[in-house]
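User: Some background: our group keeps a shared notebook of sequences we're curious about, and every so often someone picks one and asks for a predicted structure to add to the entry. Today it's my turn. The entry only has the sequence so far, pasted here. Could you supply the structure so I can complete it?
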Amino acid sequence: MKILVLNCGSSSVKYKLIDTDGNNVMAEGGVEKIGLHDGFLKYKLSDGSKAIKELGLTDHKGAVKAVLDILTDPELGCIKSYDEIDAVGHRVVHGAEKFSKSVLLTDEVIQQVKDCYDLAPLHNPANVTGIEAVEEILPGIKQVGVFDTAFHQTMPAKSYMYALPYRFYKEDGVRRYGFHKPPLCVRAGLRNTRCRHQHTENHNLPHRQRRFDYRSTQRQECGYFDGTYPD
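Assistant: Of course. Here's the predicted structure to add to the notebook entry:
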């Protein structure tokens, strides 16, 4: 299965094409400076070197189209047609308390993501723009949303509540959520040797040090295998 993974920001679209059968990254890169006259696509070639293609002024739809075109380019691409892409996964920043796992992006789910615009005004609109661009270019393809906030939904109330009037939480959703780089092992269901080894080493550390290490990039990649957030 070939999955296109997109991270659509306000002015960029980063991508990877992953072959899940061999767990191989077939292609990766990104479009930068969306909405500006000097926009460009940066991508990695098969030999590991990087190249740049000038795009000029483009929007998110144009950026997604540029990514798909480079993937299917006769000389630079790694697939022959769009039909080889089985699904598209999107990084979605904010799911509030609505999502505790990755979900298939239906019209109802997309509306719930839009309902979170106030909580992530710079990120969620860009995420949805990317989702809608894919739907327009690849109609009917399965799309999945992976939420930054999903893994952290296991935090107990004592960890996510702020010392503020309770109405701010009830009416506006003001609480601690947790963001950035959804845990890869939890997200993808991977249980490789490297992660098991690091997970074991981490539990030999004092609890306070485990918490700090968890919040580093390495801890977020390995995740907690029982699916819970440390107190």
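Suggested note for the entry: Confidence is low (pLDDT under 50) at residues 183-227. The two ends are 37 Å apart (CA to CA).
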